[in-house]
């Protein structure tokens, strides 16, 4: 849990930059703001403190998402383990179900995060003025009802599933390709070691960021709006106004945020596999 809080504090400025880039509509003929210019604009507002606007929503998000995900996974695992160790397929299903439950639990905090991080770039009469995540939650329910808590849930779920699928799938693909092929020009042959895991996971992170970006941008826009809105409507109006490139807004901060995460995840996974094999060798 403490690790989750540290993670929230470290990644918050990146999340803030990403949401701002995703929700500022492009003006035709004008250059799209880059990651650096959005960061600079944010700091110019109120100094470095404004990089942490909406931090309480990040913390609430970590708590609700991580707590439900880890808690329900442990619960399912212990139920599955009643008659002997469960198969890895069952554990994978449990992990996916837990991820889904975590996503639902984290959705309200995601809405607050999107709104609070981009509040100061909205026109004053469209601002939400949430002072912290808890009072924001109360205001959200008061003005939009309990249904308001699930705004953007569809795109959030699509994003989570795409994220997992594309990461795992492309990691395996890159890894097996590098094991079978030499790198051209430098004639370098990878072996199954840490260097390969790093390269394959960096590439997998790139693929995952790109694949998830459209769902992520739509999610941010749905959550940031307070009126009635549906994903298809937001998609078509944004496409008409800004062209297909809007679907990849905020790619850079999303990649920076996901990159280290992905690398850590796979390097850890490989070490785990190795440890497993030493403990339980296959004959
Ligand atoms: C994604 O994968 C991780 C690790 O395998 C798992 O813990 C998580 O629950 C999954 N999430 C979804 C939404 O499938
Ligand atoms: C937020 O504050 C601004 C003035 O700073 C005001 O114009 C706006 O109506 C407020 N929004 C809400 C939802 O209270």
Topology of this protein?
Layout: H1 2-23, H2 35-46, H3 55-80, H4 88-117, H5 133-144, H6 153-180, H7 194-224, H8 231-242, H9 251-279
Helix pairs in contact: 1-2, 1-3, 1-9, 3-4, 4-5, 4-6, 4-7, 6-7, 7-9
The protein binds 2-acetamido-2-deoxy-beta-D-glucopyranose (2 copies).
One 2-acetamido-2-deoxy-beta-D-glucopyranose is lined by residues 124-125, 127-129.
The name CATH uses for the topology is: Mitochondrial carrier fold
Beta-strand content: under 5%
Number of individual domains: 1
Average pLDDT for all residues: 87
Named at the architecture level, the CATH assignment is: Alpha/alpha barrel
Rg of Cα set:
21 Å
Low-confidence stretches: none
Q: Provide the CATH top-level class.
A: Mainly Alpha
Note the total helix count. Answer: 9
For the termini, the CA-CA separation is 39 Å
Number of strands: 0
Q: In one word, what is the shape?
A: globular
- What's the story with the biggest beta sheet? none
- Can you say what the CATH homologous superfamily is? Mitochondrial carrier domain
Could you say which structural class the secondary elements and strand pairing correspond to? mainly alpha
